[in-house]
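To illustrate the input format used throughout this study, we show a single complete record. The first block contains the structure-token representation of the backbone; no residue identities are included at this stage. The design step must infer an amino acid for every position from geometry alone.
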């Protein structure tokens, strides 16, 4: 166990062995890492309550703190925080092309990856809680996909929770991936229109880029093909508070004076398009919605219902090229060098039709854990049309519906969002 200090905080590394498959606790084990963060002046307070943070994703490691930055500044006033690297991410046992290659056939790889959804993450958390708290319940903060995990926690292990805070992460309890994408494609189209209204010159910039990419075999520095559909996919950044501005600045750098794609543009695009840091995001993004049926590459199928996203037609008709959002397409697996060896496993996951349930509506209707949730009215990733019925379906949940913030509000609001949710749970607002 390593203990070290940042300005205003004391940090401790924790490692836990957990079953790969919680239904077979004596089978294969994997390691899960978590970082404890406590305010320096409270480090010796053995009675300080724990707050588990469940990161967005799926497949993203917990934030790497720098002192009391962002929402941590507010949380550390009241809690000892545990930043969990959810299984397969960060310093936990990795799940990547290198490690999965040891399993051999794609069927074994897909079977292994099936254990990396919210239900398994919750059971990991329960083992960790009993280890750290001596059996006492703890608080949980779930951001985005971490909110999905929190609703699973409330469904299957509510005895482990004293209170729950959810930010931009109330899922549709029975919604399929198809339903999610039928709601999110129009939202991405609206965000693209708003971006072009804010930055009118970007309409022609993107059309120029689209035309160039349709005529030339361009590559990213890692060798991945840079295509029009790849360019469209960077629209997932439009759902954040500064994403539109960042996209505009990126597009400014696209061409050299001689009309070639610039190196700075290529490298910045690679950082946005590569799944090297988050392979599980691509492999499990659609399965994180699946309950009892196959997703069958839902985003690709549903996109066909929205002809306005056809870039070739837009270029031919002199229309604006629309960006896409938080959608994973099968071509992404084959295009990305870090995912390419897992193409067959990804197809098997997309075709799996026996996914177990992630939520228990009856248990949630009888919930007794205090819960407060921020629902962002214009959320591009987690549609309010699904979140609001879920807020009503969880007994005792207090929703805060706001258009003041975007999906990344927890990170950018300097603790204001978390402070409000804490006050709501405590009945102060």
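Output of the design step:
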């Amino acid at each position: 166990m390593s203990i070290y200090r940042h300005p205003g905080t004391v940090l401790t590394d924790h490692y836990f062995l957990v079953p790969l498959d919680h239904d077979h606790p004596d089978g294969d084990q994997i390691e899960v890492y978590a970082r404890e963060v406590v305010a320096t002046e409270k480090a010796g307070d053995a009675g300080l309550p724990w707050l588990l943070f469940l990161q967005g994703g799926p497949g993203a490691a917990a934030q790497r703190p720098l002192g009391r930055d962002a929402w941590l500044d507010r949380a550390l006033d009241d809690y000892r925080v545990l930043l969990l690297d959810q299984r397969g991410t960060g310093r936990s046992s990795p799940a990547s092309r290198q490690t999965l290659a040891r399993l051999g056939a794609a069927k074994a790889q897909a079977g292994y990856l099936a254990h990396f959804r919210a239900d398994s993450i919750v059971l990991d958390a329960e083992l960790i809680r009993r280890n750290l708290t001596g059996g006492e319940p703890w608080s949980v903060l779930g951001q985005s996909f971490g909110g999905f995990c929190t609703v699973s926690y409330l469904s299957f292990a509510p005895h482990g929770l004293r209170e729950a805070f959810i930010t931009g992460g109330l899922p549709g309890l029975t919604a399929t991936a198809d339903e999610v994408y039928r709601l999110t494609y129009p939202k991405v189209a609206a965000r693209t229109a708003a971006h072009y209204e804010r930055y009118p010159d970007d309409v022609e910039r993107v059309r120029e880029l689209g035309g160039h990419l349709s005529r030339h075999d361009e590559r990213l520095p890692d060798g991945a093909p840079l295509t029009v559909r790849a360019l469209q996919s960077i629209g997932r950044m439009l759902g954040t508070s500064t994403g539109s501005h960042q996209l505009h600045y990126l597009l400014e750098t696209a061409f050299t004076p001689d009309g070639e794609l610039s190196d700075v543009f290529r490298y910045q695009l690679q950082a946005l398009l590569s799944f090297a840091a988050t392979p599980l995001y691509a492999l499990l993004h659609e399965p994180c919605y699946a309950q009892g049926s196959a997703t069958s590459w839902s985003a690709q199928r549903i996109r066909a219902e929205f002809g306005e996203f056809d870039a070739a037609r837009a270029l031919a008709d002199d229309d604006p090229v629309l960006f896409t959002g938080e959608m994973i397409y099968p071509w992404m697996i084959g295009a990305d060098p870090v995912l390419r060896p897992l193409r067959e496993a990804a197809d098997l996951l997309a075709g799996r039709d026996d996914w177990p349930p992630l939520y228990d509506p009856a248990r949630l209707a009888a919930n007794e854990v205090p819960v407060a949730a921020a629902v962002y009215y214009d959320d591009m990733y987690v549609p309010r049309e699904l979140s609001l019925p879920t807020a009503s379906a969880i007994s005792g949940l207090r929703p805060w519906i706001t258009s003041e913030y975007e999906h990344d509000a927890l990170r950018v609001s300097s603790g204001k969002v978390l402070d409000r949710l804490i006050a709501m749970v405590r009945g102060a607002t």
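Structural context for interpreting the output: The mean pLDDT is 97. The first strand starts at residue 3 and ends at 6.
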